[in-house]
Amino acid sequence: MELFKNTQIDFLGKQKIFIGISLVLLATGIASWAAKGGLRYGIDFTGGANINVRFASKPPIDRIRAAVGAKIPGEISVQEVTGENEVIIGLPLKDEKALQQERETVVATLTETFGEKTDRLDLNNANPQQLVERLREPLQRASIPMNDEQLGQLARRVFEFRNTPPRSGVLASLDQLREVEGVTPQVLDVIRQQCYLAPFTIRGAEVIGPKVGAEMRNKAVLAVLYALGGMLVYLAFRFEFIYGLAAVIAVFHDVIITLGFFSLTDKEISLNVIAALLTLVGYSMNDTIVVFDRIRETLKLSRRELTPQIVNDSINQTLSRTVLTSGLTFISALALWLFGGPVLNGFAFALVVGVIVGTYSSIFVASPILVFWHERSRKGRRAAPAAAK
Amino acid sequence: MKSLKWKAALIVAITLACLYGVFGVPKSADELIANWKRNIRLGLDLRGGSMLLLQVQLQDAFKLEANTQIERLKEELGKQSIPYQSIDHNDPQTLAEAGDIAIQVRGIPAEKSQLFRNIVAELLPSWVLTPLSSTEYRLTLKPTEVLALKEDTVQRAITTIESRINGLGLAEAAVQRRGGAGSEAEILISLPGLDDPARVKSILQTAALLELYEVKDGPFPRQEDALAKYGGVMPLNTKLMRSAPRPGDPAGEGWYVVTRTPVITGRDLRDARPAQDEFGKWETAFVLSQEAKGRFARFTEANIGNRLAIALDNQIRSAPTIQSRIEDQGRITGAASHQEASDLALVLRAGSLPAGIVYLQEQTVGPSLGADSIRKGLIAGAVGLVFVVVFMLIYYAGAGVNAVVALILNGVILIGCLAYLEAVLTLPGIAGIILLIGMAVDSNVLIFERIREELRAGKATAAAVDTGFSKAFLTIIDTHVATVVSCAFLFMFGTPAIRGFAVTLVIGLVANVFTSVFVSRAMFQFALARQGFNPRLSIGI
């Protein structure tokens, strides 16, 4: 099968349209960026705390907000994870000690609001060790013989069962435990006496103090700048300086537009997104290098100067590869975006946008810069002897 | 043909080595899975667990050091009968100010100054004495000593934290200094498999400073009552200490006048265990060391009928009356549960922390969250992979098989290298693998498109394959090196999870050069060699 055969598209002839599109995209992104007073950063960079809580059914957002808000001063956010019975409770930045304390307060408040006031063990928020200690004596009293090793294995099985999807950490009813190997009706009776189920579980927590937040911001900015610098140096070394510069401008263009999309869609910039941006930097660079490589090869063979025609031909010759690779990478990124879950969502989104913009920019941004530079320096050379006369 | 055999042997050898790294030589299906789980190390974000980053409050250790030296100095000045007005130290509040610790000495008579200097030089060799006036002096810690004390404090904190955490039976826990020795006073604790770090945090937060004091007077219901009795000035060598009410304790708050220096401290302990009293209440029993034994026996014998204050973290837990001579046993009452009693025993055994700690960062991923991430990552990867494989087979026909084999081999080598390097697979690492699928295919597409071009230009098949590979090779190297450069910076500046991404991607890229250039080419050559003269190539045109 062949999709592209000897294409003769005049890419450079249409550069004005595409430069227009680029400018519009850049302007829209930056305008939204400015209108919203900057990008939305994740807690990796701002500092603060996020607590993931999963509920057995649809989470009662208003009750959560009211209960937690009553205990914690300042603004808290309760964000629903779409498609899951899960919320992320966000606390704003405070000093390290206050953050730790508030994290404990949130958990205590949730237990108070949604849990039971009993001595029984909350199986949704306990660990296997606690279950072992809780069951040891009651099992003995119920004359169910079990040594510590068997008991430990039983507890591990119960928690493994609780943690596998579709339960994913929350049991709705103790009856579900019947499916677990080793939970006989007698054992289940004992569990029922000793345990209960709160309708939620704490699935994860992240607390980042101001010091670490500031450190991560610095590191992220440095990583991006050094990566761009490193590539500029590598390309200047392998090609010419202007090739490196054109590629870096194109990549910069991609990063700004992708960040613009993040601003438009109100997505958070997390550390994972920075990793995605760097990946897209590498990817867009790939694309540009493939075209530049072809230009360099043609120049060597023809021993001519760089002309728009050569650049156009090179783009056309590599077009098949460009479209195929971008298409396949795009599919991989799209799969990650659609199926990768909430944690990778930002990362995948950056890649989905980045692959498209990156492919576009190597054809419509990097190559025109190269041509523009050569035309100018040729005119300059022609003008210089004329002036000398 | 001979060189082709060598190539095939090399490819098979590398594949087997990688498979061995991951699976070992399994004798059963269970063992195969067990080996896989052991060799592929999952990061905390995938397997669940907690990561804590804490900062040692070095200023505490410096203040403690100044206090100790002040006590020694006062004692010596007393012995030499040099009068003084006051000796105290300043109060650095933050970690950065820790090294600014200074001791102020006031009111040393001018005629005794030479004697005072001699005493300081002999007693406090690590301090620098600066006279401020004829009777006032300032002592500051030498810069080398500041560094040494910082190092020592962090090292001791690490040791203490390690032994406390090990006491909890968390086998895989790791305690390490962030950024290696000599850097900041930050300690990173990773606790795989632990989804509720509350207990660890409370165990680390307890300073576990155990002290036994002789009670001189008390208890008073309020601090003011005690002060009123002594006219606002405590008698020499005594201090006021609060006894905190424990839940379920009828005694309530009280204040005791105790001796300034403790009879016994936590360092004199040999062992501590949870125990139950005659009413079944939990308490922590301790045993004194050989060296402290005699001292304590003499003390209790001389003080029968007096009270003894047992203080933990500068709060009196109980103040029992000494009934008889006690050899080496004691107990701390008032634990709420078995767990509390055994946790206290644990921290007492591990020793006290040399300084307070503050948590800078916590990251906890429950096992169910990790399992979800793995599942979703695998689904996304599988969807992407299936699409890519199907597309390559349709678009490039026979050559597509080369690409698919190269892709699979790429994955095998990547996983094998991860196992050999003991690298940790993180969630961004899985994302890196998915991205790698796209990039691995890129190399093949570059090569195949080149070969097609050469074929279209009318070259013979074998020559077209050779030219295609050699021309695409340069481009592949350029693109891969550029990505490796950006990964290098990610590795330098990234968090552990992002480092996982960078490592995975770099290994994958190197493996990719091998599979798409070397392996795929060998497959082409093999296919052509089998056809003999004037071979044909299935590459979709």
Describe the structure.
The complex is a heterodimer of chains A (389) and B (541). Chain A has twelve helices and six strands. With 389 residues, chain A is an alpha+beta fold. Chain A folds into three domains: 12-42 and 209-382, Multidrug efflux transporter AcrB transmembrane domain (Multidrug efflux transporter AcrB transmembrane fold), CATH 1.20.1640.10; 46-118, TATA-Binding Protein (2-Layer Sandwich), CATH 3.30.310; 121-200, no CATH class. In chain A, α3 crosses α4 (96-114), α5 (128-141) packs across α6 (148-163) and α5 (128-141) packs across α7 (185-194). Chain A is elongated, with a radius of gyration of 29 Å. With 541 residues, chain B is α+β, with helices and mostly antiparallel strands. Chain B has three domains: 2-46 and 366-531, Multidrug efflux transporter AcrB transmembrane fold; 64-143, Hypothetical Protein Ta0175, Chain: A, domain 2 (Alpha-Beta Complex), CATH 3.90.1070; 209-329, 2-Layer Sandwich (Gyrase A, domain 2), CATH 3.30.1360.200. Chain B has helices spanning 2-23, 29-39, 44-47, 58-79, 113-123, 143-167, 198-205, 223-229, 290-302, 338-350, 367-420, 427-456, 461-493, 496-531, and strands at residues 41-42, 49-56, 86-89, 102-106, 127-131, 137-141, 174-177, 186-192, 210-220, 238-243, 254-259, 264-265, 269-276, 282-288, 308-312, 315-318, 329-332, 357-365, 424-425. In chain B, strands 9, 10, 11, 12, 15 and 16 form a six-stranded antiparallel β-sheet that branches. In chain B, strands 7-8-2-18 form a four-stranded antiparallel β-sheet. A four-stranded antiparallel β-sheet of chain B has the order 3-4-6-5. In chain B, α1 (2-23) packs antiparallel against α11 (367-420), α4 (58-79) packs across α5 and α11 packs across α12 (427-456). Chain B is elongated and about 110 Å long. The model of chain B has no long low-confidence stretch (mean pLDDT 84). The interface between A and B is large, with 84 and 77 residues. β6 of chain A pairs antiparallel with β18 of chain B.
